[in-house]
Structure formats: structure tokens, C-alpha cells
Amino acid sequence: MTPSDASTPRLSVVVATFNRLPLISRLLEQFAEQTLPPGQFEVVVVDDGSKEPVREPLLAQIRPFTLRVEVQANAGAAAARHRGVLAARGEVVLVTDDDMQVASDFLERHLEQHPPGSRNVVLGRIRPDPSIGDMPLFERWYAYLNHRMAEELSVPGARARGNHLYTGNVSFRREDYVGVGGFDKSLGQSEDVELGVRLEKAGCAFVFASDAYVLHGSDHVSFERWLKRANRYGMFDTQVARKHPDVRGVNPWRLLFETNPLARPLLAATVVAPQATRLLTGAVMNAAKAADKLGLEKAAFAGTSVVYGMEYLRGARSEAGGWTGIAREVARYLQGQRGR
Fold first, then answer.
1. Which keywords describe this protein according to UniProt (predicted)?
2. With a threshold of 0.85, does the pTM exceed it?
3. What is the pLDDT of residues 195-246, one digit of tens each?
4. Domains in the chain, please, with CATH?
5. Per-residue confidence (pLDDT) for residue 339, from 0 to 100
6. Backbone angles phi, psi at 17, to 5 degrees
7. How far apart are CA 325 and CA 10, in angstroms?
């Protein structure tokens, strides 16, 4: 059961979910404890084709806020979030993930970053769940990257950009989202970054709000699936770069020029011989794991970054379609460098 839908909320929270009923239930319990009055927000959950029913168990619970649950055949996170934003009634939409946890002032912190007349895109901080230490090295590496980006954006004078956008913790005006066409549902990865680029081009201002944080755990434990995601990011970032050739920060070939010089030979070797270097990728990951066991976290994360970059560039190379395509993409990056 949910309260009456008679009044229009100030804020709509959109959460896509897939086969995670316990996690989305936990998140909804935390939304019930928000300092923002329940009449000022709603939650729109989009079930992206979960095997077990989600709608009925969620709506069976009494909650102080309006909850609506949309159900669709599995079409991916971008399509699910898009459906949720279109169904939202609030002026401001906040998108987060079903495996997040939030503090009681989470929604209030986001709303205060959207004063009347503003066109802000607010990036909240993603902090690791305290149990992250029990997760595999590659998941702790993700948490490290989130922390590093948050620290960089927290420096006075630092400027958040469109290509920083991530869907784990972001809010924006619904009107701006609809105005730029929403998520590109043809992208299997990086649809968040691509949306951010279009929002920035449309005149939105990006704001980093460290106090509007979420805690992120993870149920990803497969190294093979992690590698596959890296490969897909390389593929789809290539597509994003083609859509936005004027934005250097989305060009996947930047890794060859911006990565630590010590890692560049390994990345270049992967581009030249993507299959022959797979054993080398495994050896680097084994070295990273060994460093991790010895407590050498910095070295372990550095090795994990190299492994990710190698698989990422395999994906970019595949999408580029051969040496002619690679040369075109690299030239586009270099032209962007000269145009800075």
C-alpha cells in the first residue's frame, strides 16, 4: 500500500532492479526513514524482468511515501531507468542503484543542491560499504577509483564535467533529461557518461556533493564477468566517442597516452596482438593478487588497472574494426589534444 498520489512530489527517486528483491527492499526501508517529509518525494522502482516477482512483495508493505513499481521485460538498465524517469512526477529526479544504502538525510542533501531556477546535475559521493574488504581485488579497485575521483572533485576549484556522470548517485531536473532525449538505450555500457555529455552541452551545470553519499556493496564476484564488462566498456566508449568527437574524455584511446608510462607498452602490445597477450593479462592479474596478499595495496591496484586497460582496449580495438579504424580513432584523440 502507498499514500494517495493526489499531490505532486518535489523529488522522484528512480531505481532499476533485477533479481535483487532483498536489496531493493532494504533500500526502500531506508527511504522510509528520510528527513525529507514523505509527501515531498516518491519512489519509482522499475523491475527489469526479474525471475521472481518484485512488484507484489514491494507493494504489500506499508510505506510513508508514494511507491510505484513498473514492470518490463528485460531490456537492460538504461531502458529501465529511462522508463522510470518518464514515469516520474517530480521536478527533480534522483537515480540510484538497488544495491546502495543511504543515510537519513540523503534525499534532503540532494534537493538542497537544486535551488529554484538552477539546472544542476548533482553527483553524490559513492562510498564503499564497510564489508568491501571481503570482496575480490577487482571490486575493491572500483571502490578505490570512486574514492580517487571524489577526492579530485572535492579540491577547491575542481570542476565536475558531463563525462563524470554515473547512475549510482545522481540527480537532475526531469525537464533537462527529457530535453536531451534521455539515456541512449542502444548503449550496453557508458550510457550514463554519454547522457552527461549531452546534458553539459545543453547548458547544465555539474555539481559534486560529497555529503549526498551512498554506501555501495557488491555481489559481483566473477573475475570473468569483470573482464567482460571491461571489454564492453571499450566497445561502447568507442561508440560514445563517435557520437561526441569533440569530447576527449570519452575517447578510449586516451589510455595509450594518459596512463602511467610504465603500463603503456603492455597496453600497446594488447592492441597489436589482442589474443596473443591474453596470457600476459593473466600473469599481470596474478602479480596484482600476489601484491594484494602481501599488503601492497598500491601495487595491487596498479596491476588491476593495467589488466582492466588491456581488456578495455581489446574491446575498443574490436569495435574500431581493424587498423584503419584504430588509426581514425587515435587521430581523433590527437586532434582533440591539439585543440585544447
1. Transferase
2. yes
3. 999 999 999 999 999 999 999 977 667 899 999 999 999 999 999 999 999 9
4. 11-216 (3.90.550.10), 223-338 (no CATH)
5. 44
6. -140, 150
7. 47
User: Cα–Cα–Cα angle for 69, 72, 76, nearest 5°?
Assistant: 110
- Evaluate whether 41 touches 13 at the Cβ level (below 8 Å): yes
DSSP class of 112: T
Three-point CA angle 252, 303, 163, nearest 5°: 30
Residues shown for the chain: 340
Rg (CA), the chain: 21
Cell of 45: 522502482
Rounded to 5 degrees, φ, ψ at 20 are -135, 50
Q: How confident is the model at residue 7, as a pLDDT?
A: 80
Q: In whole angstroms, give the CA distance from residue 268 to residue 46.
A: 41
> With 0-12 CB in 10 A as exposed, 13-18 as middle and 19+ as buried, what is 1?
exposed
Residues 121, 204: contact at Cβ < 8 Å?
yes
Residue type, 164: H
Q: Which residue has the cell 536531451?
A: 180
